[in-house]
């Protein structure tokens, strides 16, 4: 039966849910408070420079293909996808590791660092591939309603991997700290320390080494534009500058929203906005989770971001670059265990104009720098500038070039901006971490347990943080909603 559905927010999960629900025959409207769709996957264009303000890694291309194929489309109908070669570089204190675009190249690089390590690597990635097939085709497609969703003939055989950690498993086979850091890096996308992440999540290593790192020509915002176009093709109405101020409930039944001061009636409301914020739009008696609940949860990091326009090309860097020239474990402790501004942070630098000339004026470079930090920290202009100076000094040293005199402009984004622009709980950037106690059915629910016809989607619910999981989250909520109505 056709329903009138209001969706709050327009990030990946909201756009995904909107497409599936419109395809199912519902009347769907999206309400986005900002000036453009995309949520955290926003875009900044200035003086001919194009910046992806949020996600910048395109992993798991199969998930994107599956999404578009559900609507009789292909990614190539909307954007051109290029595999990066090399995938990325990692700068250490005394060396640079280059991750190639295939296993043979990666194994050669591992052998250069630690003799015999390629044998262990191939076995490790083969196991990671098995986990990937189970995770993507079984576990993540479940709506997180029951612990029995995790029980399949495949997961029963791997139950021990849910009680071991990525960190312990990597250290059994690899001794060189650079290789350990390289193999632990992908789980940072899940928002938790490797020592707190179940070893089953090694499937992220297969996503990295096995499936490769890709780039949509024009930047990650091309995916948002594609999903927005698809949604409109399916009949979805998209409203920007549309701030939802309240979710309306009468006798435990959701019946609409208040947006920009106006009442909009709806049979069903789906919120893809920050889950904590979404519940704050309800009267207190209709909220499922208390402030104490949220405060006890392990959140993925926030970020200090710099968007920098360079007059001139840069040397000795690739499209993606990780600077692991400081203490990995100390920085992780300063994010998760003892939250504070990091003493000597790891950071990430992205230069999409190296492989995509459309991202910057001719002869120039578009730069995106990210420092992972704990959510909820004090955020001041003085601190932003202090860390800008710190990472630029290290960047110049590690890449052997002076760049400060090439900066045409820079923009910054940090905790306060995540709160103000995205209503993000404590200014987190990536949602809730995928630790064992926050996996699957242990995450906040897709369906409200207190209000009928109210649903949630996004990286604070199932399956978890990241762009591909957000696409899947939109599909899961649409299936659950259809089943219940």
From TrEMBL:
The keyword Oxidoreductase applies. Residues 15-479 form the Amine oxidase domain. The gene is crtI. GO terms for biological process: carotenoid biosynthetic process. This is Phytoene desaturase. It comes from the Bacteria. Pathway: Carotenoid biosynthesis. InterPro entries: Amino_oxidase, Carotenoid/retinoid_OxRdtase, FAD/NAD-bd_sf. Belongs to the carotenoid/retinoid oxidoreductase family. Keywords: Carotenoid biosynthesis, Oxidoreductase. Gene3D superfamilies: FAD/NAD(P)-binding domain. GO terms for molecular function: oxidoreductase activity.
């Amino acid at each position: 039966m056709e329903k009138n559905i209001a969706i709050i927010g327009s990030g990946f999960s909201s756009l995904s849910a909107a497409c599936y629900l419109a395809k199912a025959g519902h009347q769907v409207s999206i309400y986005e408070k900002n000036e453009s769709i995309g949520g955290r996957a926003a875009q900044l264009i200035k003086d001919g420079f194009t910046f992806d303000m949020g996600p910048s890694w395109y992993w798991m291309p199969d998930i994107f293909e599956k999404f578009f194929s559900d609507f009789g489309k292909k990614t190539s109908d909307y954007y051109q996808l290029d595999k990066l070669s090399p995938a990325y570089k990692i700068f250490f204190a005394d060396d640079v590791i280059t991750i190639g675009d295939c296993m043979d190249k990666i194994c050669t690089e591992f052998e250069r660092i630690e003799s015999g390590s390629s044998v262990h690597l191939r076995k490790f990635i083969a196991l990671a591939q098995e986990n990937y097939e189970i995770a993507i085709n079984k576990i993540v497609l479940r709506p997180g309603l029951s612990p029995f969703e995790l029980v399949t003939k495949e997961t029963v055989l791997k139950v021990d991997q849910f009680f071991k950690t990525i960190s312990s498993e990597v250290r059994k086979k690899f001794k060189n700290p650079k290789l350990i850091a390289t193999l632990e890096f992908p789980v940072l996308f899940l928002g938790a320390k490797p020592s707190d992440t179940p070893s089953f999540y090694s499937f992220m290593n297969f996503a990295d080494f096995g499936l490769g790192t890709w780039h949509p020509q024009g930047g990650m915002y091309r995916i948002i534009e594609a999903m927005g176009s698809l949604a409109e093709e399916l009949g979805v109405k998209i409203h920007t500058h549309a701030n939802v101020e309240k979710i309306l409930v009468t006798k435990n039944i959701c019946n609409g929203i208040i947006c920009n001061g106006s009442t909009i009636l709806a049979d069903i409301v789906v919120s893809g906005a920050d889950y904590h914020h979404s519940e704050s739009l309800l009267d207190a008696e209709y909220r499922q989770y208390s402030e104490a609940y949220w405060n006890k949860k392990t959140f993925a990091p926030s970020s200090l971001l710099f968007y920098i326009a360079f007059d001139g090309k840069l040397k000795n860097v690739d499209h993606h670059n990780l600077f692991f020239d400081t203490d990995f474990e100390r920085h992780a402790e300063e994010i998760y265990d003892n939250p504070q501004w990091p003493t000597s942070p790891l950071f990430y630098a992205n230069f999409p104009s190296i492989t995509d000339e459309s991202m910057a004026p001719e002869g120039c470079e578009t730069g995106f720098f990210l420092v992972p930090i704990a959510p909820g920290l004090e955020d001041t202009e003085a601190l932003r500038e202090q860390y800008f100076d710190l990472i630029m000094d290290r960047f110049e040293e590690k890449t052997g070039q002076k760049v400060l005199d090439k900066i045409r402009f820079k923009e910054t984004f940090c905790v306060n901006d995540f709160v103000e622009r995205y209503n993000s709980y404590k200014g987190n950037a990536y949602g809730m971490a995928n630790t064992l106690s926050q996996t699957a059915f242990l995450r906040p629910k897709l369906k409200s347990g207190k209000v009928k016809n109210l649903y949630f989607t996004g990286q604070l619910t199932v399956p978890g943080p990241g762009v591909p999981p957000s696409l899947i989250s939109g599909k899961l909520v649409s299936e659950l909603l259809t089943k219940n109505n």
